[in-house]
Predict the structure.
Amino acid sequence: MTDLSRNGIIGPFTREVYNTIGDRLGHTSHIPGDSVQTLFNDMHLYPSKSQVSEMLQCARQCGRRNGTTSFLTFGEFCVFAREMQRPKSHRRSPQKSPNANCARNCEVFLGGSCNPTTWRIETAIPELQKHGITYYNPQKSIWGPELVAEEHDAKQSASVLLFVLDSQTRSVAGMIEVAYLVASDRCVVVVAHPYQLGQSIMGEELSYREYDDLVSGQMTLLSLLRNQGVKVHSNLTSALQKTTSILKYSYNLAEEQVTSKLRILGN
């Protein structure tokens, strides 16, 4: 492998990659295909075998290589390693399921009122699991103060914040939070259920004044969302479809960016 440090083109990340490869394989300009996954693991990155296979195939195609020998160059390995280290990518320990309720590096935060709602466990989580999408569910059977920090981490790391403003609860905190997140330019998908005159919440019938306040607050929020170009969904099914679509688009965009970088390296 070329001594990149002498050429003055090595930074903290490429130095880490350079040292990792050197420790495992010694000085080499080509990383054999059967060593790629081990090197990723050495960097605490855990792609699946199929992901590694796709990387090798992509590198071969972009590099216009003939023959059957699979390998990555130093630059190609750096591109893939950097993409895997991106905050929204699937960087996880090998023991953790990609569908686990994870606070860090989750793709979707399931926001809104918790008890007595059941939309998360009954509908949202099965649908996200079907698509292999990671999520954080803040609805816990036993809540403790330590979960405040965990929820914060999940909100910060999530690519999409899915909020259901249901009418089973007053959802006042949820309305305020959605307004804040949208104003912070976060990607928020919102479901809003209207309140009904004379309805009860948690066994307590709403007075007309409280009903009017809740409706006024919800309408103010919905007006804000429309002004910001945020679609408000009337049902969870369409909101989940939108969430999946957003994530699929981001995956495709990331793949296009990686392919573009590899083609530059191959020229």
About this structure: Strands lie at 30-32, 71-73, 108-112, 135-136, 160-165, 188-192, 200-201, 204-205, 232-233. Residues 108-255 form a domain with the Rossmann fold fold (CATH 3.40.50). The chain has two domains: 4-87, 108-255.
